[in-house]
Amino acid sequence: MNNLGHNYKPVLEHIMRGEVEKKLHGLQVLPVRREIAHEVISLAYGFFTPVSGFMGRDEVDTTLSRMELPDGTLWSIPIVLDVKREEVKRLGLKPGDSVLLEYLGAPLATLDIDEFFSYDLGKMAEMTYGTRDVKHPGVKRTMEYSGDFVAGRINLVNEPVFNEPFSEFWKTPLQHREAFAMKNWKNVVAHQTRNVPHTGHESLMKQAWFAANEDMPVDEIHTGVLVNAIIGEKRTGDYIDEAILLGQDALRKGGYFKDNVHMVTFTLWDMRYAGPREAIFHAILRTNLGCTHHMFGRDHAGVGNFYKPYDAQDMLKAERDKLRIKPVFLRENWYCPVCNEVTNEALCSHESQSQNFSGTLIRSILTDGVKPTKRVMRPEVFDVVMSSAEKYGFGSPFVTNEYLKSRQPVFNLKKMEVFAS
User: Fold this and answer.
1) Cα separation of 114 and 94, whole Å?
2) How far apart are CA 59 and CA 66, in angstroms?
3) DSSP per-residue letters across 275-333
4) What pLDDT does residue 10 have?
5) Does this chain's domain 5-158 share its CATH topology with 166-406?
6) CA proximity to 264, closest of 295, 229, 297, 240
7) Which of 50, 289, 312, 384 could form a disulfide with 279 if both were Cys (CB 3.0 to 4.6 A apart)?
8) How far apart are CA 291 and CA 325, in angstroms?
9) 10 Å Cβ neighbour count for 399?
């Protein structure tokens, strides 16, 4: 499949001038859920290059069995669109047809249908996640598919309009590369996150910057840190998306990173928690954004006890020759009161006195609303997270049922007049 990302804008302008609208008006309409809409947008803009449409059976087979596309390109996660057989029959769809995908009551994209196929969901889950246990959120997600799928190329026809504060942080892959060029970044190290930052995260980013800066002149700064947050499915207890983005950016605004070495953006993606396979996917994703390096720490993209702490790093090492990005491997860190610094077990012998950056500790601090010491969380980050809670989170920095029900949407779609008649 070819990448649409770099040629997308002229195609959309062509459509919006009305030369293709009459054709779209006669298409059958297939409404899609939020997670599919997110993947449509990512496919169309080139985040998933070289995949530019929902996968067919052969692509799913080789992704699961060999972790590659049929042409041998490294790929680790199936990107599929499940549609119930009854819906296909009702719409009278067949290979060769185009169908209009609709989201939020507005047109989003066309799908040029290549094939329909069924797939064993248990097999898909086990080969992706290494388990069929529905306690694994990725397995649960997969087992909720209909089992019937439609494959084909995606063509975006309606650009998403991102709401505040998301609009400040949205960039397509091409726009990422343009921003890096404006900053004169030769090397860019990616930080994957779904969290607000504490000083442990900050320390890891700075360690990764030094690692990615290894071949740069000592008197010049041509290396940057890209914090690319994942915005997607939320569960109660997660950090709210707005706090994640604004909290990460507060590190730069607070002076803990200079403007010319730090940037925050996001990608629309529902975490699969696929551990090693998702680490490979993240490496491919950030390669498409123009990054040269990617930091990987303990339990990258893992969940519960389904993977060992450094399984993701082991798989990245095994696939290193196929990657087009350099992994930066980092260990778990802590604050040592004896050394008076952030360190880890490989460097410091005071493990018994160490203070871990536990999620429970950070959450209790934010829940109580008591400003922590600088050694735990920067005061600027704390202030932004708490203000985000009031402005966007209905009083909480964590996802609640009220947030899930009433939150401001990440983006809206324009109601195109041609579909209103």
Assistant:
1) 8
2) 10
3) THHHHHHHHHHHHHTT-SEEEE-TTTT--TTSS-TTHHHHHHHHTGGG-SSEEEE----
4) 34
5) no
6) 229
7) 312
8) 7
9) 19
Give the three-state DSSP class for 195: coil
Give the residue among 140, 107, 96 at the shortest CA–CA distance from 122.
140
Burial label for 124, CB within 10 Å (0-12, 13-18, 19+), is buried
User: With contact defined as beta carbons under 8 Å apart, do 236 and 393 qualify?
Assistant: no
- Closest alpha carbon to 44 in 136, 158, 124, 149: 158
With contact defined as beta carbons under 8 Å apart, do 79 and 51 qualify?
yes
Residue 420 has pLDDT above 80, yes or no: no
Reading the block at residue 265, the tokens are 């953006």
C-alpha to C-alpha distance for 319 and 283, rounded to whole angstroms: 11
Domain 166-406 top-level CATH class? alpha beta
Residue type, position 232, single letter: G
Report the topology of domain 5-158.
Sulfate adenylyltransferase (3.10.400)
Task: Check if the beta carbon of residue 193 is closer than 8 Å to that of residue 201.
Answer: yes
Angstrom CA distances, 57 to 92, 120, 121, 410, 412, stand at 21, 11, 13, 32, 32
Parallel, antiparallel or unpaired: strands 293-296 and 326-329: parallel
Bridge partners of 417, per DSSP, are none
Alpha carbon of 232 to those of 71, 240, 245: distances in Å?
A: 30, 11, 13
Q: Which two structure tokens, joined as six digits, stand for 417?
A: 């007049």
CA 266 – CA 248 distance, rounded (Å): 11
The residue ranges of every structural domain in the chain are 5-158, 166-406
Q: Which amino acid is at 59?
A: E
Residue 138 has pLDDT above 60, yes or no: yes
Residue with tokens 């290549």: 114
Q: What is the pLDDT of residues 340-380, one digit of tens each?
A: 777 777 778 887 767 666 667 788 888 888 888 888 899 99
Q: Is the pLDDT of residue 11 over 70?
A: no
Kindly report the length of the chain: 421
CA distances from 285 to 10, 41, 61, 268, 291 (A): 23, 14, 21, 11, 9
Q: CA–CA separation, 110 vs 99, rounded Å?
A: 6
